[in-house]
């Protein structure tokens, strides 16, 4: 996804939604919270979020910090054979200095 490569921080936290707002404040980036649909435009993202009165569309310029609503993706449930395969896989560590921020 090309828009992801343009510095989008996607956060996870609890229902208080503090992680996104704190990170956006520290980075001085715009934020889109509780996103249920995200679409990329020209240098910006359009975020659809659920509010009390229905749906709201907001646009944020890149770079941005986004928090995801539970409805953003369909959950995938692991099957027992795949869990057993995953146990056998080797995990690799990555140096955080290699992550471009």
Rounded Rg? 16 Å
Form type: extended
Major β-sheet, in short? 5 strands, mixed
Low-confidence stretches: 1-6
What is the percentage of strand-forming residues? 25-35%
Q: Give the rounded overall mean pLDDT.
A: 80
As an assembly, this protein is single chain
Which percent bin holds the helix content?
10-25%
Structural class: alpha/beta
The counted number of beta strands is: 5
Q: Whole-Å distance between the termini?
A: 17 Å
Record the SSE blueprint.
Blueprint: E1 8-11, H1 18-27, E2 31-40, E3 44-51, E4 54-61, E5 64-68, H2 80-88
Parallel strand pairs: 1-5, 2-5
Antiparallel strand pairs: 2-3, 3-4
How does this model look, in words?
There is one protein chain. With 101 residues, the chain is of the alpha/beta class. Helix content is 19%, strand content 35%. The chain has two helices and five strands. The protein has helices spanning 18-27, 80-88; strands at 8-11, 31-40, 44-51, 54-61, 64-68. The chain has a five-stranded mixed beta sheet with strand order 1-5-2-3-4, with helices on one face. Strand 2 (31-40) and strand 3 form a beta hairpin. It is extended. Residues 1-6 have low confidence and may be disordered.
Summary, kept brief:
The protein has 2 helices and 5 strands. With 101 residues, the protein is α/β, with parallel strands linked by helices.
Keywords:
101 residues, alpha/beta, 2 helices
